[in-house]
Amino acid sequence: MSSYEDRDKCHFYYKIGACRHGDRCSKKHIRPTSSATVLVPNMYWKPSSDDSQTLQADFDAFFEDVYMEAARFGELQTMVVCENKNDHLNGNVYLKFSHPKEAHAAKDSFNTRWYNERPLYCEFSHVTDFREAVCRKHDVQSCERGDECNFMHVQRPSQQLLHELEQAQFCQKKQPKS
Ligand SMILES: [Zn+2]
Ligand SMILES: [Zn+2]
C-alpha cells in the first residue's frame, strides 16, 4: 500500500475502529471484509450507580458472559471494552481472535443474537494492535481529555476474573474435541 493512499484514510477509524464523525467523516472509512477482530459497538451499558463495587460486579458479570460466548468460536486473544462516554466508543466491545476464520464464526453468530433485550449488531474491525488504540493516560491517572477522549478508555475486569477466564480457555484448548 502506498503512502499516497494513506493520506485519505481516517486514522481514528483504522486505529481505534471508530471515529466521532461516523459515516459523515471526510476521510475514508473502508470496512474490512475480513479480520481477526470483531467489534460490537455500544454493547455494554453501565448501570447507574455510584457504588464502585456494584459497578465492578456488574461489569465482571458482563465481561465473563461475553468472553465465554466468544471463546466458543476460537482462541480469544484480547477482549477490550471501552468506557468512554462519547457515542462512537461508549460500551464498544472488541474481540480479537487468533484467526479471521474464528472471528467470522463469532460475528455470524453474534449478529443473530440478542443481549439485554437488544439485538446485537457487529462488524469486522481493522484494530488488531490495541497498544496503538488505548489511551494510556486513562490507565495510569486521569486523562485530560476526559470521557470524550477519542482513544480507548478501557474498562478492566477484576484481575482474578481475567486470570480465571484465561485459564479456562487454555484448559479447554488442551482437551481433545469430543
Ligand atoms: Zn473518520
Ligand atoms: Zn484518554
Describe the 3D structure.
This protein has one domain (31-174): RRM (RNA recognition motif) domain (Alpha-Beta Plaits). 37% of the residues lie in helices and 12% in strands. It has helices at 3-6, 11-16, 52-71, 100-110, 130-133, 136-140, 159-174, and strands spanning 37-40, 76-81, 93-97, 114-115, 118-119, 123-125. The strands form two sheets. Strands 2-3-1-6 form a four-stranded antiparallel beta sheet, covered by helices on one side. It has a two-stranded antiparallel ribbon with strand order 4-5. A hairpin with a 2-residue loop joins β4 and β5. The longest helix has 20 residues, at 52-71. It is globular and about 50 Å long. It holds the Pfam family zf-CCCH.
CATH superfamily: RRM (RNA recognition motif) domain
CATH second-level architecture: 2-Layer Sandwich
Rounded average pLDDT: 92
Taken as a percent bin, the fraction of beta residues is: 5-15%
Query: What fold name stands as the CATH topology?
Result: Alpha-Beta Plaits
Low-confidence stretches: none
- Going by helix content, strand content and strand pairing, the class is alpha+beta
Q: How many domain modules?
A: 1
Specify Rg, calculated over alpha carbons. Answer: 17 Å
> In the CATH hierarchy, what is the class?
Alpha Beta
Name the assembly state.
Answer: single chain
**Terminal residue distance:** 44 Å
- Identify the bound ligands: zinc ion
How many distinct beta strands?
A: 6
Largest sheet: 4 strands, antiparallel
